[in-house]
């Protein structure tokens, strides 16, 4: 996709350059040739843009289908456990599995209350596919729609921040990493708290975190961390 974007940008610049040349050039055969070249470049630009949009659309569909497949796979695993415990009459373990499934569904409901489709999809995808930690989302906003614009404006930075945990959390068999995100309101202001418990490559995480924090606008950032625990709270003005 990067190559298509570069080709599109170069094409646009060439169009602008040729139009400027046409503007300052006197009439005659040279002008007609330049106009023909401009038309050809515009046609090429049209097909390049169309190809790029088609690529983006196919990629989006592919990501959605992958998410559905992962979700179905996880759900089938839970259902098989439930039916297995019912068959074996191990009702004590059955209660644990049902409670776990109930909490998982509640976290998904919390995500879908944010009113920001792209962010919601990313959080649901991360909850399903993350191999670095258990992922939980809490939401206690009285009126989530009140903060929709702020969440939309900062959605990509929030995703960048989440990707840091995915990138630097150490995925080992003897570690139960857990990341909890809490969307809440305090004094009529939006707060988003990230709490990570587990093993993480802290020096690299802190270095990349500073780059992301500087991009937040009108947001106060509180952070505390050590090698086993990280707490980051964003307060939106």
TrEMBL record:
Alphabetical keyword list: Kinase, Membrane, Phosphoprotein, Transferase, Transmembrane, Transmembrane helix
Domain called SpoOB alpha-helical: residue spans: 55-114
Domain of life assignment: Bacteria
Gene Ontology molecular function terms on file: phosphorelay sensor kinase activity
Pfam families cross-referenced by the UniProt entry: SPOB_a
Bilayer-spanning residue ranges: 7-24, 30-48
Descriptive protein name: SpoOB alpha-helical domain-containing protein
Organism: Chengkuizengella marina
């Amino acid at each position: 996709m990067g190559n298509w974007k570069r080709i599109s940008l170069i094409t646009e610049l060439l169009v602008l350059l040729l139009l400027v040349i046409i503007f300052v050039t006197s009439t005659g055969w040279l002008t007609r040739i330049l106009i023909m070249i401009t038309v050809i470049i515009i046609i090429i630009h049209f097909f390049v843009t169309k190809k790029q949009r088609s690529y983006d659309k196919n990629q989006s569909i592919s990501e959605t289908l992958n998410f559905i497949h992962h979700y179905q796979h996880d759900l089938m695993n839970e259902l098989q456990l439930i039916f297995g415990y019912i068959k074996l009459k191990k009702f004590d373990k059955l209660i644990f599995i049902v409670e776990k499934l109930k909490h998982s569904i509640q976290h998904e409901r919390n995500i879908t209350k944010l009113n920001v489709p792209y962010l919601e999809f990313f959080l649901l995808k991360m909850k399903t596919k993350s191999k670095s930690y258990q992922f939980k989302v809490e939401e206690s906003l009285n009126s989530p729609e009140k903060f929709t614009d702020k969440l939309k404006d900062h959605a990509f930075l929030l995703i960048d921040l989440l990707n840091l945990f995915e990138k630097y959390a150490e995925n080992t068999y003897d570690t139960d990493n857990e990341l909890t995100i809490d969307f809440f309101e305090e004094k009529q202001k939006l707060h988003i708290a990230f709490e990570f418990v587990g093993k993480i490559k802290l020096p690299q995480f802190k270095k990349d975190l500073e780059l992301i924090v500087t991009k937040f606008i009108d947001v106060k950032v509180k952070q505390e961390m050590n090698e086993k625990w990280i707490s980051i709270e964003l307060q939106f003005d």
